[in-house]
Amino acid sequence: MAPKNATASSSRVATNLKTINGKAGPSTILKNKNKKRAVQEVSEDEDDDFASVGSGIDMSDDEEVEEGEENEDEEAFPEFDSEIEDEVDQADEGDSESEELDDEEESGSESGYNSSDIEAMYDEEEDNENEDEEYSPLTSPSSSHKELSTDEKLSKLIAKNSIKPDESLGTDAKISKAKEGVGKLVPSKFVEGGYKREYEDYEAGYGSESSTEDNPNTVGNIPMEWYDDLPHIGYDVNGRKIFRPAQGDELDKFLSNTEDPAAWTSAEDRLLQQSVQLSDKELDIIRRLERAENPDADYDPYQPTIEWFTGEGNERVMPLSAAPEPKRRFVPSKWEHKKIMKIVKAIREGRIIPNKPSATKPTVYQIWSDSDQANLEHAMYMPAPQLPPPKTIESYNPPEEYLLNEEEQKEWEEAEKEDRKIDFLPSKYDSLRLVPGYKNLVQEKFERCLDLYLAPRTRKVKLNIDPESLIPKLPSPKELKPFPLATSVLYRHPENSRVRSVDTSPDGTFVATGSEDGIVRVWDLGNGREIWKWNLQSGAIQHIAWSPYKDESLLIALVAGKIAVLSPLALVAPSIAANTLNHVNTAFASSAATTKMGSGKEIKGTELIKWVRPNEKERERGVLVFIEVPGTPKQISWHRKGDYFATVASDASNKSVLIHQLSKHATQSPFKKLPGQVQKVLFHPLKPHFFVATQRYIRQYDLSSQTLIKTLQSGVKWISSLDLHNKGDNLIIGSYDKKLAWFDLDLSNKPYKTLRYHTKALRSVVYHPSLPLFASASDDGTIHIFHCTIYQDLMQNPLIVPLKILRGHKVTDGIGVLDLSWVNGKPWLVSSGSDGEVRLWCS
Amino acid sequence: MADINIESTGSTSATGSVVQLPINLFTRSTNDAIPQSTYLIPASWRRFQLSELINKVLQNNSDNGKKPIPFEFLINGQVLRGSLENWSKKNRGNDEETTIDIEYVRSTLPPQEVGRIEVEDWVSGLSLSRKGYTLLSSYLSHLQILPLSSASTSSTALYTLPLPTSLGATSCTWVSPQSQEKDILLAAGGIDRLTHVFSIPSLSPEDNIQLPKEIYTLHGHTQPISTIISSKSGKEIISGSWDGLLNLYTLPNSEPNEHQISSEPLNFLTGQGNKKKRKLEKENPREPIEGLMDNDSTGEGGWRRIPEINFKGHLGRIGGSVWDKFDQEKIWSAGWDGSVRGWDLNTGINSMIRQGPFDKSALCIDQFTANGTLVTGNMDRTICLWDTRQATSLISLTLQTSSPIPSIKTHPTSSFTLASATYSGIIQIWDIRSPKNSLFSVSNVNRKERKVTKNGKVLGERLLALDWDGEVLIAGGEDGEVGIWNATGA
Known about the structure:
Helix content of chain B: under 10%
Subunit structure (chain B): Component of the NOP7 complex, composed of ERB1, NOP7 and YTM1. Within the NOP7 complex ERB1 appears to interact directly with NOP7 and YTM1. The NOP7 complex also associates with the 66S pre-ribosome.
Radius of gyration of chain A: 57 Å
Number of helices of chain B: 4
CATH class of the largest domain in chain B: Mainly Beta
Strand content of chain A: 15-25%
Pfam family, one (chain B): NLE
CATH architecture of the largest domain in chain B: 7 Propeller
Low-confidence stretches of chain B: 1-16, 270-299
Oligomer: heterodimer
Number of strands of chain A: 36
Distance between the termini of chain A: 116 Å
Region (Disordered) (chain B): 259-299
CATH topology of the largest domain in chain B: Methylamine Dehydrogenase, Chain H
Strand content of chain B: 35-45%
Largest sheet of chain A: 6 strands, antiparallel
Radius of gyration of chain B: 26 Å
CATH superfamily of the largest domain in chain A: YVTN repeat-like/Quinoprotein amine dehydrogenase
Family (chain B): Belongs to the WD repeat WDR12/YTM1 family.
Low-confidence stretches of chain A: 1-146, 165-179, 598-602
Shape of chain A: flat
Shape of chain B: elongated
Mean pLDDT of chain B: 80
Number of domains of chain A: 4
Structural class of chain A: alpha+beta
Number of domains of chain B: 2
Keywords (chain B): Nucleus, Repeat, Ribosome biogenesis, rRNA processing, WD repeat
Helix content of chain A: 25-40%
CATH topology of the largest domain in chain A: Methylamine Dehydrogenase, Chain H
Number of strands of chain B: 34
CATH superfamily of the largest domain in chain B: YVTN repeat-like/Quinoprotein amine dehydrogenase
CATH architecture of the largest domain in chain A: 7 Propeller
């Protein structure tokens, strides 16, 4: 313990550390000791305890002091600390293993040292002595020490008191260590009463039997015959010549061989030119080498294995991966089950009979007795494909025309084997007995066998399915009449201005069209006469829609920045006109102002929305209200009761969807934030639901609870139009990527069917308000009419039957049919095209 | 003699390689009937030879002082055009054994166009009820009476009667019977939901002392008028409208001196200025609703009258109506709901309903004078014959056309011939014994190359109105012209 403590504490003081570094000897000894102590941890602990017990009675007190001292240490030499430790590291280089131990010991030793009591110190020294005694067999011989004389003790005491306690600790220890038998104090000759330390000759305890150690000749590794002519054979350490030892003659050699019993165990040392007696150890090594054993006597090839990772208590607790145990570890194997069931089946069918007594073969039987019977066909027996029968050319005596002439023969011979048309040379023999053996026989048979072996033959089970039966059975269009077939009426627009929107009035008498010349026209559905028109003079009419409420005659037209509420007052009965006016104008009456702001306080920017009363002349013509809105509204959707309507203006950011109420002249923006660029909106025909179609998704909102009910994933790239079936359970959308998707709202949020039959983008899809029909219009100039039966039985899928392709609209500027509208109660369809034509298609 | 002739031809054919076909000739008219027998006729014979044959059998030659009658031959509802051989090859596959049944009818000459009258706007209604004059109504919102002479291509109108609003007139009819020469009444229905009855002093130009005037304004419809008919006596007018009602108005014998109902508001401005407006209205009650473009129609309104009876039954627009040709107490109407209904005028009861398919919207109706069969022109491009005398029958015959039939007219005497106008601009004359294709069809290709009317309405080829009195046929429509043809039917 003491020497260890000494090193540890010495590391604290730089000066002493230097001395240690200077003297490599002690430090190495200490290191050795450390190593040994590392092996004997247990005993060391005991030592620690012992030391602590010895250092003081009250442990706690000691600790306190220790803490204080440590603190002091740190305060006093904060920088040193690290440096010193570094240096210690350097000193202990390669001894990283023992470092930790060093630290531990440090603390232990400190606890031992921290008592400033001298006696304790002495005790410790005694301890050290004891320890040394204990460890004596392990220590090198040089570490043996002698009893200190009283004089020495005295001088040590003086030295101790003359140094500051902190510093002294290490020094002390060092001194004590140095004193402790490494050298001995002798009275100095120069200083009266002084002592001088005399050290014993140091013997480096390498512990090796290297012959260089005791080899006095230092000539080095040179051929010794160079000294053959010289009287000496080399030089010793001090440079003096080593003279050739006397060489006995052959007789002497013989005598020594015969007389000296140890002569045969000697060998000649060439450097010293004399025979050296081999030690027992060396002889043992030789003996081991002879027996091809490990020369090291200490090596134990049969030492017990140390189980680091296996065996009881060494199981790996930490799994290698965090993945949970797969299910297959717990469930019975399916494959095994299959295999077993196969066997079970075979047993049931009688193909395998368990515990069948093996058929006893008669000891003597005829091998060929059943060879004349045909082979029973195995279930998997498959005859090899037959070779073609021999032809005339293969005959031994073929007609002349089959024989090759010389050129052909030459050609045949020159050709590659694979390129030959026939793989033999036809030849003619006069008689069968002249025919030689066929030399390719073996090769051909081999190839045939190889073919049969390499080409696996299986019985193919052919599916005999009539492709016709795979086509779903749809009723023929003839059974599904009536549906639109041909153009009956044209609603002619002047100068072929593009008609963006068309709508038929709910009673089926009027057709309203909105064209790009900014005029809303009302037509007689039956004969195509324009009977009313409004010139809104604000650019193209984007969309128009009749109010679905039959007791009023209201039409809404969308132009840039404006919504116009129109009514063909002169065309309708006075009672209906009065209803209409009452409905639309009451809000004006309640507030005297001709302009009313929209009442959407919570949304910023809704104050821009104004309900403006048109001038008298316009009102006389049936323009009832203008609603000024941000952006260009593109689509309008009426609520079924005809009081609310929603508009979409894609370019009006968060105010793109607006819901207007006619009776109150109120506008609200239902969405604070929109889920994307809104394409179309739609009111549910029966429930208070609201559909919002963005580019790819359709969201269904509940207006009463203001919640999102579901999001439909269309699977198309850009929705252009949508319509809801009058029962409210089915929805169709058209897309600019040529697709039409049918959603069953009860079924899934993915399309029930996606139809792709148009060659260009779809512009409009519309359900018939009462008949089981829907139509889609596309930029390819065609309108497709479909039949759709929606069954009351929820389990039955809707029946969709394509009925008719209506052609007639011309494609202009890449745009075909723009809008569709069914005539209420009739299987008639009104379509508007970019060619400026609006057509009525009748059954 | 005829027999000899046939035999001689037969013998020649026997010697040569001429194919002979066995035929049966029959007819439905009693006058032209020939004895039933099977003839062997050379296959190369055409209509003319067959007609000659029948005339010979009937002995219609100059010896008897009778003119030969041209006949038309129908085989299986198809008019024979070309030789018998061709027909046989086409339809029978050269089966020369089976007897061919050939019906023969008196031939009508194809219509000859004799003139065209240019009108400023679409023609909506035409009437030839009064011999020598054409009554037409147009979407320019007026009635015109034109003298009908063979060279009346550019004749000026005798009368032009404007309607009070410029929304347009949809139909017109003569009200007064043809015998009445003075104070003739005529009526027009308009998109303004009113029927306007006008009175003109006389048709002879020298009597134009009194100005024509609107004498009655018939209220009662909530939607535009689609059809007007008047009784033979000229005392009753029935109007049909888009609202599905038929209204019977009885005209008083002498001019009344009070309105039956108050006037409709002509102005729909509400709010504070309303009372002022009403005051203004009282001072100047005839301020017209500003119509489309033009302001030229400011006719005075007549005495407002209300209907005597409402005939309610049709579920959609009334397409057309016709007074029963036999029973003055009965009218027929056809509607967009696909039904044909008969109404009893005295009781107002819907005495007969024939409900066809709901999409067979009828645009017009007429009745054959001979047998009372009703014929309708429909939106689904068919002409349907309704035999109303048999209780079970619905549609007895359907003639397929290429486009909707807005107007149809039966021959005044024949029970087989009718004329129809189509939306594709073609006038067809049908013999219902030949239902597969029409006897003649003429189109209004001769029309002038006008694109737009004065008030900005686009012109097209569509025909909207047609009338036929058995000799003269007139038709007009979207083309802004009235074409006049000489067309005689059997």
